[in-house]
Structure formats: C-alpha cells, structure tokens
C-alpha cells in the first residue's frame, strides 16, 4: 500500500465528527446573518414540531397588517398544491395504485392554472372516496378534514382563502426560519424599529444556538402543545423517548438557560433583560381531553384537581422552576393559554403579549436612566 504522504509528514488530520461539522456550519451561517439583523427587534418563537408555530404566525399576521389580495391568492395556490400532494400520496400508497384511472391522475402535469383541474381529476378516481375514508392521515389530521369540507371552493380556479381557511388548512412545509412583522394594534406601533416575530424550526439545529442571533430579542415566545400531555415523543437532542410536556420543559430549560459564552457581550446584556413567555397552546383540545385522561398521565406526582386551570397553574410552576443555571437572573415567566384557531381570542392574547413586552421595554428604559 502506498504510504499516505500527508499523514506521514504532517500527522493525521484531527478527526472531526459529523456533529462538530454541523455545529461549525451553523456558526458560519450565524456570523453572516448577525451583521444584518442586529439593528432590529426580534421575538423568537420556539416550539416542538406541530405545537402550532405556523398557526400562531398566521394569527399574528391576520391581527397585524393582515393578508392582501395578492398574498391570499398565493396562499390559495399553496392550499391547492398541498391538497394535490396529499391526494397523490394517499393514492400512490393505496393498493389501487395500478388502476389505470389512478395512473392517469398521478401522472397529470400541473401548473398553477390547472391546479383545480388536477384536484378534480384526482377526486374523480372511482375508489377515491373509500381510500380517503380509510386513510389514517385524513382521519387524524384536522387540517385535512377541514380541507375536505372546502373541496367545492378549492376546485374553483379563482379560489381565495378566507381568514379561517388560512388558519385551518394544511400548507406545504414552511422554510426552517420564517419571519413576519409583529404589530398588533396599540401604542407600540409608532416605534421606528419594528418588532419581528421569527419562527425557528426545531430540526434546523440546536434552537438555542440560533438564539444567539437574537441579541435584541425582547422576549422569547415558547409554544407548548398542552394537548399532548399524555403522549410521548423522541426528544431529538438526546434521542430519548419522553413525555411531550417534559420534552418541552427540557427544551425550554436549554433555551432560557443558554450559556452566555454563546453571546457577544452586547447580546448577552440584552438577552438578560428579555422576558420569557410560555404559550400553552391547543387549550381547547387539552380541556376536552382532561375529561377523559387524568393529568397525572403527565405528572404522576400531581395531586391537585383534574381541572384545566389547576393543571395549567401546576405546569406554570414547573416551567418557572427551570430557571437558574448559568447565573440567569431569577425572573417570572409569563404564560397564556391559547386556542390558535380562535381569531377573536388570539386577537386579545396577541395584544396582551405585546402590551407586556411594551411595559417591560419602558421599564428597562427607565432603569437605564
Ligand atoms: N384544536 C386546535 N388545533 C390547533 C391549535 N393550534 C394549532 N392547531 C392545529 O395543529 C396542527 C399543527 O399546527 P401548525 O401551526 O402547523 O404547527 P407547527 O408548529 O407549525 O408544525 P410544524 O411546522 O410541522 O413544525 C394544525 O392542524 C393546526 O390547525 C389549537 O390551539 N387548537
Ligand atoms: Mg409550521
């Protein structure tokens, strides 16, 4: 075997594992982005997949600048595209996929003008109704169920989604980082520096590492899907199977106790004064489920009444208790219970959240003087 010159002369290059390579890549990306975004105010929005980040963002947009006609048209196209890919997925995996009608429907070309036609063709496959009814995806995914009810409207070529459609429909996967202006009506809107809500997908890498981007984060919003209190998930950082609320607590802990060595000094100072908001989402589903499944499914040591308010109070205390590592100054978290599908309730909640951030902003300015 020919000796390896590099290793004979300079020694073997140090072994770098995949995690380090990925971490270095994130660092490089962060350095690039840091310069452009330092001048803005951010509200990072975290949460496990499916906790409701996208729905929360859409509510924030609805209650802020709203969606204009062009945005609605584009989102209508996204809804139609999402419907087509779901129908195709279900047809392709069903045992009827060698039926000639299915083959034709699966092979049809689509462009934006013929989306409605494509959906009609797919729905016209003779066994489609049965396949949909038997599909676990359609049975368990409330967004898909909602879209089934929308079919007569979705299959028109000039379909324009309503506010409720925008909240309830399934969309193609969002990019890893999505940002929108956060400007629910109020006195804070006169500020020349707009607040931007930034949603960071969990699988982009360690969410807490992305947090270092948000030096000017005035608050961190952490979304928890409360209705999954009786379920488990694979916690990505340690690959452990954990109860979903406990997994959310772990993640919250790692985010709010992020070591300050991750920040430069200015960012660190700002992060110290940001407030932490925990939004217990899917409160509607949680309340309903609690009548069937006791809260002790999540916390076996819970001895309080099996009622939503008491259970949320207990959760709040558990989240509050997670502070304290790495010298973070003790402070109170703020919590809200939400149903992200409820437009009126979210209007009030978003205003309250902004109000609490605004008050803190004034308080911080006063302290600085
Ligand atoms: N009943 C109920 N459903 C909700 C609520 N919030 C979100 N959903 C539904 O939960 C599902 C997931 O919500 P998304 O907003 O897509 O969640 P996400 O966090 O963006 O999920 P990923 O992008 O997949 O990580 C959707 O079907 C929503 O309609 C809520 O408060 N109550
Ligand atoms: Mg999403």
Structure at a glance:
The protein has 369 residues and is an alpha/beta fold. The protein is built from 16 helices and eight strands. The structure holds guanosine-5'-triphosphate and magnesium ion.
Structure description:
With 369 residues, the protein is an alpha/beta fold. The protein folds into 2 domains: 38-64 and 182-363, 3-Layer(aba) Sandwich (Rossmann fold), CATH 3.40.50; 69-168. It contains 16 helices and 8 strands. Helix 4 (69-93) packs parallel to helix 6. It starts with a helix and ends with a helix.
Using brief descriptors, characterize the structure shown.
369 residues; alpha/beta; Rossmann fold; six-stranded mixed β-sheet; binds guanosine-5'-triphosphate; binds magnesium ion; GTP binding; transducer; G protein-coupled receptor binding; P-loop_NTPase; GproteinA_insert
- Give me the number of helical elements: 16
The tally of strands reads: 8
Helix-strand pattern, N to C?
HHEHHHHHHHHEEHEEEHHEHHEH
Helix/strand/pairing category:
alpha/beta
The residue-averaged pLDDT reads: 80
Tell me the fraction of residues in β-strands, as a range: 5-15%
**Gyration radius, to the nearest Å?**
24 Å
Q: Would you identify the regions where 5 or more consecutive residues have pLDDT less than 50?
A: 1-7
What is the name of the CATH architecture of the largest domain?
A: 3-Layer(aba) Sandwich
User: Largest sheet, order of strands side by side?
Assistant: 2-3-1-4-7-8
Fraction of residues in helices? 40-55%
Count of distinct structural domains:
2
């Amino acid at each position: 075997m020919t000796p390896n010159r590099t290793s004979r002369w300079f020694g073997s290059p140090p072994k770098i594992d995949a995690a380090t390579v990925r971490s270095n890549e994130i660092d490089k990306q962060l350095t690039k982005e840091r310069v452009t975004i330092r001048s803005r105010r951010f509200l990072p929005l975290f949460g496990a997949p499916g906790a409701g980040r996208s729905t929360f963002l859409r509510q924030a947009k609805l209650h802020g600048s709203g969606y204009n006609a062009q945005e609605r048209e584009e989102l209508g196209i996204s809804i139609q595209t999402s419907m087509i890919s779901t129908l195709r997925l279900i047809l392709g995996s069903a045992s009827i996929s060698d039926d000639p009608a299915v083959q034709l429907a699966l092979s049809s070309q689509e462009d934006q003008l013929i989306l409605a036609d494509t959906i009609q063709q797919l729905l016209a496959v003779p066994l489609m109704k049965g396949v949909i009814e038997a599909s676990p995806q359609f049975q368990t995914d409330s967004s898909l169920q909602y879209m089934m009810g929308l079919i007569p409207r979705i299959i028109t070529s000039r379909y324009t989604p309503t506010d409720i459609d925008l909240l309830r429909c399934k969309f193609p996967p969002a990019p890893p980082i999505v940002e929108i202006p956060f400007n629910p009506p109020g006195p804070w809107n006169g500020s020349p520096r707009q607040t931007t809500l930034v949603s960071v997908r969990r699988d982009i890498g360690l969410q807490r590492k992305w947090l270092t981007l948000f030096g000017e984060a005035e608050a961190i919003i952490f979304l928890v899907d409360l209705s999954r209190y009786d379920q488990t998930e694979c916690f990505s950082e340690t690959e452990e199977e954990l109860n979903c609320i406990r997994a959310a607590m772990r993640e919250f802990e790692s985010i709010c106790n992020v070591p300050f060595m991750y920040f430069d000094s200015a960012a660190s100072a700002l992060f110290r004064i940001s407030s932490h908001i925990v939004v217990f989402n899917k409160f509607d589903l949680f309340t309903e489920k609690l009548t069937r499944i006791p809260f002790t499914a999540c916390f076996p040591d819970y001895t309080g009444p099996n009622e939503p308010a008491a259970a949320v109070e207990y959760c709040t205390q558990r989240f509050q208790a997670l502070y304290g590592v790495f010298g973070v100054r003790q402070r109170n978290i703020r919590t809200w219970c939400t149903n992200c599908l409820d437009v009126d309730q979210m209007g009030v909640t978003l205003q309250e959240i902004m109000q609490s951030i605004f008050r803190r902003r004034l308080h911080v300015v006063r302290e600085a003087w």
